[in-house]
Amino acid sequence: MPQPPEGRPAEHGIAAANQAVRQRFAFDDEQDLRDARRGFMGTASESVIRDAEGRSVWDLEAYGFLAQDCPDTANPSLWRQSRLCSDHGLFEVTDGIYQVRGFDLSNMTLVEGERGVFVIDPLLCAETAAAGLALYRAHRGDRPVTGVLYTHSHADHFGGVRGVIADEDVERGIPVLAPQGFLEHAVSENVYAGTAMSRRAAYMYGAALPKGERGQIGAGLGQTVSTGAVTLIPPTAHITRTGQTETVDGIRMVFQLTPGTEAPAELNLHFPDRRALCMAENATHNLHNLLTLRGAQVRDPRVWARYLTEAIDLFTDSTEVAFASHHWPVWGRDRVVGFLSEQRDLYAYLHDQTLRMLNEGLTALEIAERIEMPPALERAWHTHGYYGSVSHNTKAVYQRYLGWFDGNPAHLWEHPPVESAKRYVEFMGDAEEVLRRARQSYADGDFRWVAQVVNHVVFADPDNAEARALQADALEQLGYGSENGTWRNFYLMGALELRQGPVGTPTQTVSPDLLGALTLEQLFEALAIRVDGPRAWDADITVRWNLTDGEPVTLRLRNGVLTHVTGDGPAAPDPDVEITLSEADLRAVLLGTTAPADLAARDDVKVTGDAGRLAELLGYLGAPDPDFAVVTP
User: Fold this and answer.
1) Alpha-carbon distance 554 to 568, whole Å?
2) What is the pLDDT of residues 312-333, one digit of tens each?
């Protein structure tokens, strides 16, 4: 990949605004710095973590430049957060509990038991997890892994599992624990909308951006995502209720289920014998997302706040340290209670005040502009919007309750972006006139307006080089001023692709393990999503799968919709072709690893009827585009 051009320097208004941030907040408060470095035991001798082909998937020293003073091209608050997140190595949390931090977007926690070590959240990819486990063993001995826990259903908390255990370990009885609903949500989120989420995640985490003072400096929650193999071993046991206790390798754990918070399936857990509380990703050193910019279902801040209150009540009387799967721990009971209480108040305030204002008739955009946070919360570093933001979180609350429509009928049937853009440019004179005015706005420091208006020129004429260049410059300045790491990455990725063209999607979460974990029900639903509806309007094809190791399933493509029926009920129509085979062979056909013609030629597979109808049906499936355009039509 060619190296992107060096970014422009910060314009005066951005530099001045960043300088003002220094005066606004207590940068001389070093409590977080002390906490982030407490218990440091050492780091890896090799800074680059590579995959089996020798490709770099993570570089521990990529953020060494953050040791310098913050430049004008970065918000000092985000620079401070990124410097804290970039510390890497093995850290002792308390007696018998350790964390590998800075080896991926997330942390891997290791709890020592009677015979070995229990692993919590084995990072995003197998390569970084293996490197983290090797670091732990270099300092604590070659202890075997005696259990694994996934705290929730996001890939950066399970994707590295094959770096710490293998299928053979599970077959020998090593437990893999997860909250109820974990597998369904982990698979569906990464497969159903996985292509779009991965493309947007490339913008959100900025993994393709150059790292440096004019490029990617972090994502707020961590630095960025690793680019190795995302894996999954299904859970062998589930946590189904709050108060459930489990003992693995002599390690006693008490669980709190927190569905609908940071993930649809999530839990916190307490180690009563260690007086330690793991908050998963429900209380971290930033304002989290209520709707992540990569896309997801809107989270419920009301429930989130309630579960934080419950955690305080359940666990803090016997807690001396709280840690999470991102960032650094908090030590001391009073500090833990204060931290969790402020995190609780943060989500409750956003929820309640958004509802108050929407009931006064304000729209999502208006609420995002008007809302102000309480001074006491704003003074706390851990409430800052490094990952989530007050702006896009209030819009998420609005969306959760009222949806996309703001009630104004003028917004009910708007033209799509390209058609709107052409009309806007025509009404404003022409592209040259729009750009002339936009250059003046740029000179005046109104970069937000430049990005909004020049976007119309780019979408009306994506080959307009002047428009692309000016839009890239405006997005870059907005990135330089952003306290939010994901906003900065989105802005700078947009600038990069306007200047250089698409750079792709570095991290793919739709892996063989995730596809293999799909139930047949989910697999059929994933296929239905791929049907090219208009091409299939007139098709009427029915295929019946007679499973030798399961119930029969009938697929029907009709009216551009692929439906499936399990069993022999009246909803299963007469088939054009019947195929008798095992579930494993059915999966191979549907996933594209076995061609229908090859299947029909096998002695252990029976085909009755017109075998060509299956190939015809599969021919109506389209392939998603992992590199679709974002900042151009």
Assistant:
1) 9
2) 999 999 999 999 999 999 999 9
